[in-house]
Design goal:
373 residues, alpha/beta, 8-stranded mixed sheet, 6-stranded antiparallel sheet, 11 helices
């Protein structure tokens, strides 16, 4: 569940990023069919019901994510006292379940995903030390409860970012790593490319930059990360650009800017993508340069778009020559190839960002599950 906040207070502490969505929204539909038990509503109440339906389910809270949490991590990780205070605060709030005054949910979460995006050069050893502190405190709690708690961390695909993480030492502290397998190309770039390809070819203008999953996997394994702890991130969203010339069905071409926000049914543009007052029926990401898989599915070979599949690189694309709009994304064929790769290389598994971007039938999520069996 993303995200919990890390505050640069003294002492450093965990905080709930969105209290209304987390536990105060009493209008959220029930997961189990039973009413939520006051005062725990919202997504936390839904998680509690979901775990009741599926007793073996483990739920982690991801701490950080947004750029605003970087200062909190830097401050907390810099000293032994700060690390201890942060781990203690997060465990008390999310694992022991002391959500807020009068609101408790023991066992709601089974551990943490540390999503520090991303440690700088001065944070390299502190990052490992922070993970070790979380691991130590979770192990101590396990001795009193008899439960196993899970610790993971999110790790970047870019060599410029993971160079600031002691990958082998950090991996030794956690159960697994969630390693980004997307955003190798972004809507803010000036040339189209494939954002989550498994491989690369020499025709790619940035071929030497290792912007593909296979290069990331090899780099992590070489650094000492056990294959079994490597989980591959798969996107349930597309990256898009507009103003793309009708050459090579839009791939490796110059752009005017990120693609505008679409209507969720793909029939046109979102009239008002403002996140606080968006028009009804818009793609739920509400961010230029991105579209959910649910929306992308509605564009496939419709509304002037033609679907393409790059079997060499393992990635799908869509291009509309009339509007000069290009999207790169994972389809079921790409998912099948990636899950085959995961099994072949004995990696730990896969994860997605983000579950709510899939279609109503959870098509890609189910395809990933089927591929990993």
């Amino acid at each position: 569940y993303a995200f919990g906040n890390v505050t640069p207070t003294s002492p450093p502490a965990c905080a709930i990023a969105d209290p209304v969505a987390a536990y105060q929204n009493s209008t959220l539909p029930s997961v189990s069919g039973k009413p939520y038990a006051a005062p725990l509503y919202g997504n936390f109440g839904a998680i509690q019901q979901l775990k009741g339906l599926h007793p073996k389910l483990k739920v982690l809270i991801s701490l950080g994510g947004q750029a605003g949490n970087v200062a909190g991590f830097v401050t907390a990780a810099a000293t032994a006292a700060g690390r201890a205070a942060l781990a203690s605060s997060c465990i008390d709030m999310f694992v022991k379940g002391n959500i807020a005054a009068g609101v408790t949910a023991p066992g709601l979460f089974d551990g943490f995903n540390i999503d520090w995006e991303f440690p700088g050069p001065a944070d390299k050893q502190n990052f490992t030390a922070l993970l070790k502190e979380f691991r130590t405190q979770l192990n101590a709690l396990a001795k009193t409860t008899g439960k196993k708690y899970v610790l993971t961390f999110d790790s970047p695909a870019s060599p410029k970012k993971y160079i600031n993480i002691d990958l082998k030492a950090a991996a030794a502290q956690v159960d697994f790593l969630t390693i980004d397998g997307y955003d190798y190309a972004g809507g803010d770039e000036k040339q189209t490319n494939e954002s989550s390809s498994l491989y690369d070819t020499s025709t790619d203008p940035v071929y030497a930059d290792d912007r593909y999953i296979d290069a990331t996997v090899k780099a992590y394994l070489k650094a000492g990360v056990p294959a079994a702890k490597y989980t591959m991130g798969l996107p349930l969203y597309a990256v898009g650009w507009t103003g793309v010339p009708n050459v090579n069905h839009g791939l490796y071409q110059s752009v005017a800017g990120p693609a505008p926000v679409l209507l969720a049914d793909g029939s046109g543009l979102c009239p008002n993508p403002d996140k606080t007052n968006a028009s009804p029926g818009c793609d739920t990401v509400l961010t230029a340069g991105f579209a959910t898989y649910s929306t992308i599915e509605n564009l496939t070979n419709k509304y002037g778009y033609t679907a393409w599949y790059d079997s060499a690189r393992v990635e799908a694309t869509l291009y509309n020559p009339a509007t000069g709009t290009f999207y790169t994304y994972d389809n079921s064929t790409a998912v099948a190839a990636k899950t085959t790769y995961i099994k072949k290389h004995k990696l730990g598994g896969a994860y997605v960002w983000a579950l709510n971007d899939d279609d109503a039938n959870a098509s890609l999520t189910k395809a990933i599950a089927a591929g990993l069996k």
